[in-house]
Amino acid sequence: MEAQKPNSAPTVKPGSNVRGIKNAFLVIIACFVVAVLLFLFVFGHPSHFDAEGFEGASMWFAGEEFAKAHPQDLIGTIFKGGVIVPILQTLFLTVIVLSVERAIALKSAKGTGSIDKFVAAVKKCLATNDIKGAQELCKKQKGSVAAVVSAALNRYEEMDRNTVLSKEQKIATLQKEVEEATAIEMPSLQQNLPIVATLTTLGTLVGLLGTVIGMIKSFQALSASGAPDSSELSTGISEALVNTAFGIATGAFAVISYNFYTNKIDNLTYAIDEIGFSIVQSFAATH
User: Contact 134/261 with Cβ under 8 angstroms?
Assistant: First the structure.
């Protein structure tokens, strides 16, 4: 009779233990609400303008008084930037919130200790074939790198006990386990970063749109018959400059954030690849 391979129950792959915000759309909505409230009741507060006879909560509802009012400080000038400002504020707040979220997520992915020390300690255990000791290190370290290493070591022990598969098949199975464990962790590491990358361009473009709208208003004031309306002219220039500033700030902060966290993810990925290669090589050398 033909020898049958032992049937093993399919392993249910656990999800990544990296925590993060799953639905970035809710973050954008929340930031938009905050941005609108700030724009209306903080930046548009009458105390930032020289308007007289208006006692409302926001200059946005002042009608003709708004057109006549001149900003007394930078906050009032920002309010004069127009309706594009809360949109830019939304993008800027979204970048900040997602950057903080990624900082927390990648900290949990890193684990409790130094990645370099953890990798060196696991390699030392592999050199002495101390698989149990390496597993204990994974339990203490936690995080994404430790999760991949732990999954690979579990498969290592399983292949060590297997008497059916050939050595080449065992090595291929071990390599596949490392790849699958890495594939589970990578999406959670990169989550929300594509949105930050999009905001690097979107922030600049929306700022440019506000700039163009502001310049159109300025030229309209200049083309009016007779002497140009200085109030309309200053409003258009303020709108152009404020939106330019917000757009540049949003794009710059998004670029810095994206590159910073991408570099951190690359370091984690390198550590995973290094330790995964060491586990496979260790198995190949000792079996």
Answer: no
Q: 176 Cβ partners below 8 Å, 6+ apart? A: none
Residue 51: CB atoms within 10 A of its CB come to 21
Q: How many Å apart are CA 265 and CA 110, to the nearest integer?
A: 9
pLDDT, average across residues 155-161? 90
User: 253: which residues sit within 8 A by CB, 6+ positions away?
Assistant: 92, 95, 96, 99
For residue 166, how many other CB atoms are within 10 A of its CB? 9
The answer to whether residue 111 scores a pLDDT higher than 60 is yes
21, amino acid identity: I
pTM, rounded to two decimals: 0.84
Q: Nearest 5°: phi and psi at 49?
A: -130, 165
Model confidence over 163-209: pLDDT tens digits?
888 989 999 999 999 999 999 888 889 999 999 999 999 999 999 99
CB-based contacts of 131, cutoff 8 Å, min separation 6: 125, 153, 156, 157, 160
Quick one: tokens of 84? Answer: 């594009």
User: Amino acid identity, residue 145?
Assistant: V
Find the range with the poorest average confidence among 50-54, 72-76, 212-216, 273-277: 50-54
In this predicted model, what pLDDT tens digit does every residue of 73-109 receive, in sequence order?
888 888 888 889 999 999 999 999 999 999 999 998 8
